Amino acid sequence: MFYRPEDGHGLPFNPFNAIVAPRPIGWIGTRGKLGDNLAPYSFFNAVAYVPPQVMFASTSAKDDRDGTKDSVAQIRESGVFSVNVVESAARDVMNASSGAHPAGQDEFEVSGARKAECETIDCPRVGDAPASLECRLTQIVQLPGEANFVVFGEVTGVHIREDCLVDGRFDVTTFRPLSRLGYRDYAVVENVFTLARPGE
């Protein structure tokens, strides 16, 4: 099969949603003039080591947020956000926070996620997440298409849950990270192996 996206794919479900997978989930915490917000984004990743930097993309809009979603709107206001790692055990809480709630509705309260304060920025984070990254906005890039924004941030603080450290390493097998596949499908990381680079 070959198709040009501009011509359509002819399938009942968009295959592009499932091709780039698995994708890590950035559970984004923000604070703005309307209050606190928490929402998951599967267009998310780390993009640099020094200084450490991350990105997430928002690709739709809400009627009450002027062409974007709550997370991007509040980051524009505050210039900061938290990224929280989603463990398998938190999948239902994460999913509950993904609803299209009205602006000003606190998804920490809606979902039951435990709220904690960040150290280097004025922003909420998920208090029992395996890891949380405190981030200062570096830039927001508007991509082609309606409501497509990529948010970049520099990590200014890192929280790691103690039980996730094993022999000095952040060990994902201790919490089984949740990842997004296509459509409404998810996966859990359970099988980890090591590969040495050529010449090592």
From TrEMBL:
Q: Which ranges carry the Flavin reductase like domain?
A: 18-172
Q: Where are the transmembrane segments?
A: none
Q: Name one GO molecular function term.
A: oxidoreductase activity, acting on the CH-NH group of donors, NAD or NADP as acceptor
This chain belongs to the protein called Flavin reductase like domain protein
Q: Which organism is it from?
A: Jannaschia aquimarina
Q: What is the lineage of its organism?
A: Bacteria, Pseudomonadati, Pseudomonadota, Alphaproteobacteria, Rhodobacterales
